[in-house]
Structure formats: C-alpha cells, structure tokens
C-alpha cells in the first residue's frame, strides 16, 4: 500500500505544471495527453537545458581546444555519467549513446550476433515484441541462416513463461525480450528469463523503452547483457537513446559504423579503433539531445522513480476500472503485472474514428497496431485504441477520456 503524502511531499501529478505543453487547450478543452507510450512530453528543465546549449555552448564535442567545445564536451559526457548511475552500470564504458532503442537493437544484432550466427543457430523473442525487437533479428537471421523462434502469449497478453523457457536450447544464441510491452503494458518476468538463459550461457537483451520511464532500473541486478531505451519515452528529446552492454561483450564486438570519433588512428593501410564506448559512436552525435536526456534523468530522480511507479499503478487501476464499466468495451492486455498502458476497442467504432472524436474533446490517445502487428494478429484485430499514462497524468485526465468515449458512443449510436 502506498504511503500517504505529506505537505512537504507534493503529489506526483503536481509535476504537471512543469510541462508547458500540458498547459494548452485543444479544441476548447484542457489537453488530456494519454499517448505517453509513443512519446512523453518534456518538462521545462529539459527544454531549458537544450536551449542553454544552443544559446551558449554550441560546439562539437571531443575535438576542440576552445572554451565552447570544452563546455559542450563536459555537458555531453556528464549526461553519460548520469545515465550510467541511472541504470547502475558498472562503468561509463558500458553506456553507448545511440539515436534510440531501434538503433541500439540493430547495433547488437549486427555487431554482436551476426559474426556469431550460422545455420542451425536460433534467436528467441516473444510474441509481445515491438517491431524494433523483431525486424533486426529477422534481418540478421536472413543474413546468417539462423532461425527466429517466438515464445507464445495467452489471452491476457502474458508471456507463457514455461513455454518460453522450454524454447531455450543449446542452439539459442540470443534472447531478446521487451521489459514492458508497448501495446499491452505487460511487464515480462525478465528475472526468470535472464536466470534461465544464464544457466545455458545465452546472452539476453532487454528492450527497456517502456520500462525506464515507469520504474527504477538496475542492470546489474537484472543480470542482463544488453539493455536498450529511448530518451523521448522518458521526457527527453527525440533522437536520443542508450545501449547498455557488458563491457567484456562490447569490447569484443566490431564497430557498427565507421567515421569520425570512433577511431584513434587512420591510414590507408588500416585503422585503429577508439576505446569504449566511443568505438560505437561514429560521427557528430546529437549533442543537445543527449544533454537534454541528462536533464530528464535529473528530473526523474528529483521526482523519484518509486513514487512515480506507485502513482502510475494507482492511476492505471483507476483507468482500467472506469474503462471496464463502459458498455460495449473490450480490453486487451489484462496481465496481472502491468505498467501504464491499456488498449481497448469500443463496440464497432473503428479505432481511428474513435481517436479523431477524442481529439475533438482534447484527449490524445494512440490508435492502430502500435508497431506490434503480431500482437494484433494474435487477437484477430487490425488495431486498438491505446491510452498510456505518465507521471503528470491525473484522475481528471481519465475522467475526460471516459466522457469523450461516452460522447463517441452516443454519436455512433
């Protein structure tokens, strides 16, 4: 049971005032932003950090001897240190900065897996995955002759754990699993998966894009070999992301891309690559975005991940109850362990039509397949409406959602 709030400890949802985008109206209604699984809004602190870099410190990192380059490098590398602490990596060398979860997974598929795979080898994923944790593995299987194996789910949208563990074998070369399903909100039993894989000596990648914004992450406690996430899901800028990898594994991997900053010495006869993590960071990076990601981490730490998790869990329960009480509603994803997402259909109303009507009532949700077509195929539907929560959402947002759905039902009646 969550602890009562005191006067010195404001409600988590009071953070709403820190987000400028949430202060506006849409179609004459207060904005109820419930599309956080796609991209969360940014607090003023993040916006200010990015603007400060552009206004005062804009220069390339790592390469200049002048003051602005020093300041930019200090802020950029300072963000890497914040990320290391945020996920409890053993070393800053284990934090590779990418443009998002998708690039991070592709990096592991091509740099770690491709040299190690051949016909007869297998990669194990689940039926719950986002396309970003399916397609890179399909590509590397096509390139190497390896086989993609898919663990099943049940009607509640839960991974069939025993079946998943039973699919691990001596042929398994990688297990790649979402920490939290973006389409259904299911929290996967990753500790059990990692433990079973470790017994077989199989590395595990966790897609943490939907995990990091909603719960404290400790990669050493999880025991995974790779963990990936995106800045824009956690109140940071788009085009930013992170690959955590065990240093011993990263050190043995060849570069993913070639270019500036990933090298120590270049000649026409050959190239000496840079040390970790720079070996995987070719070219000028998203400097301002990474600085903004560091500011987002400061913001999340200031609010408190444990407090955020309690707030969102209570609000998800409230939203699920309210949705379930509506006539003609069908809920998708009713797992016992969930985080901040509820997908649904309302009678015969097409999700896109529903989303448009809700937008006219100031309610922003996501409609469609949510880059998880196999999940939709499992349920025999083309897509759903999806409401997803963040720390700044309130019961008033949920009530506005319910009122807008009720209006849609009246219109289509």
What topology does this entry show?
Blueprint: E1 25-26, E2 29-30, E3 32-33, H1 44-57, H2 67-87, E4 95-98, H3 101-113, E5 122-126, H4 135-144, E6 147-151, H5 161-166, E7 172-178, H6 190-200, E8 204-207, H7 219-222, E9 226-230, E10 241-245, H8 247-252, E11 263-267, E12 270-273, H9 287-303, H10 305-324, E13 329-332, E14 341-346, H11 351-360, E15 363-364, E16 366-368, H12 373-379, E17 384-388, H13 395-412
Helix pairs in contact: 1-9, 2-9, 10-13
Structure summary:
By secondary structure, the chain is an alpha/beta fold. The chain has helices spanning 44-57, 67-87, 101-113, 135-144, 161-166, 190-200, 219-222, 247-252, 287-303, 305-324, 351-360, 373-379, 395-412, and strands at 25-26, 29-30, 32-33, 95-98, 122-126, 147-151, 172-178, 204-207, 226-230, 241-245, 263-267, 270-273, 329-332, 341-346, 363-364, 366-368, 384-388.
Q: Could you explain the architecture of this structure?
A:
The protein has about 425 residues and is α/β, with parallel strands linked by helices. It has two domains: about 10-35 and about 305-410, Aspartate Aminotransferase, domain 1 (Alpha-Beta Complex), CATH 3.90.1150; about 45-300, Aspartate Aminotransferase, domain 2. Helices cover about 40% and strands about 15% of the residues. It has 13 helices and 17 strands. It has helices at about 45-55, 65-85, 100-115, 135-145, 160-165, 190-200, 220, 245-250, 285-305, 305-325, 350-360, 375-380, 395-410; strands at about 25, 30, 30-35, 95-100, 120-125, 145-150, 170-180, 205, 225-230, 240-245, 265, 270-275, 330, 340-345, 365, 365-370, 385-390. Strands 4-10-9-8-7-5-6 form a seven-stranded mixed β-sheet, sandwiched between helices. A four-stranded antiparallel β-sheet has the order 13-14-17-16, with helices on one face. A two-stranded antiparallel sheet has the order 1-2. Strand 1 (about 25) and strand 2 (about 30) form a beta hairpin. Helix 10 (about 305-325) runs parallel beside helix 13 (about 395-410). The longest helix has 21 residues, at about 65-85. It is globular, with a radius of gyration of 22 Å.
């Amino acid at each position: 049971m969550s602890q009562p709030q005191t006067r010195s400890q404001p409600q988590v949802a009071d953070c709403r005032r820190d987000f400028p985008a949430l202060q506006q109206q849409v179609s004459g209604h207060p904005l109820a932003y419930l599309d956080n699984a796609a991209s969360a809004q940014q607090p003023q602190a993040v916006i200010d950090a990015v603007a400060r870099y552009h206004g005062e410190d804009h220069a390339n990192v790592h390469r200049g001897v002048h003051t602005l380059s020093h300041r930019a490098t200090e802020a950029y590398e300072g963000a890497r240190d914040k990320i290391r602490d945020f996920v409890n990596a053993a070393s800053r060398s284990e934090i590779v900065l990418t443009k998002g979860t998708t690039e991070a997974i592709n990096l592991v598929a091509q740099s770690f897996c491709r040299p190690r795979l051949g016909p007869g080898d297998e990669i194990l994923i689940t039926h719950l995955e986002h396309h970003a944790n399916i397609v890179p593995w399909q590509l590397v299987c096509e390139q190497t002759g390896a086989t993609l194996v898919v663990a099943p789910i049940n009607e509640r949208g839960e991974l069939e754990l025993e079946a998943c563990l039973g699919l691990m074998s001596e042929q398994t070369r990688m297990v790649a699993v979402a920490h939290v399903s973006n389409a259904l909100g299911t929290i996967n039993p990753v500790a059990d998966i990692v433990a079973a894989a470790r017994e077989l000596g199989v590395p595990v990648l966790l897609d943490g894009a939907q995990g990091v914004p909603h719960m404290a992450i400790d990669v050493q406690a999880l025991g995974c070999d790779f963990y990936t996430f995106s800045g824009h899901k956690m109140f940071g800028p788009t085009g930013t992301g992170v690959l955590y990898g065990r240093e011993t594994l990263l050190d043995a991997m060849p570069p993913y891309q070639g270019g500036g900053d990933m090298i120590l010495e270049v000649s026409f006869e050959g190239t000496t690559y840079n040390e970790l993590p720079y070996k995987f960071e070719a070219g000028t990076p998203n400097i301002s975005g990474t600085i903004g990601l560091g500011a987002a981490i400061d913001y999340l730490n200031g609010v408190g991940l444990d407090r955020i998790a309690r707030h969102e869990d209570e609000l998800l329960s409230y939203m699920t109850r309210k949705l379930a009480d509506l006539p003609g509603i069908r809920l998708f994803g009713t797992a016992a362990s969930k985080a901040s997402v509820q997908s649904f259909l309302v009678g015969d109303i097409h999700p896109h039509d529903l989303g448009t009507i809700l937008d006219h009532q100031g309610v922003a949700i996501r409609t469609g397949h949510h880059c998880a077509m196999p999940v939709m195929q499992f349920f025999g539907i083309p897509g759903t409406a999806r409401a997803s929560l963040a720390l700044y959402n309130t019961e008033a947002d949920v009530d506005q959602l319910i009122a807008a759905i009720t209006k849609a039902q009246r219109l289509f009646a």
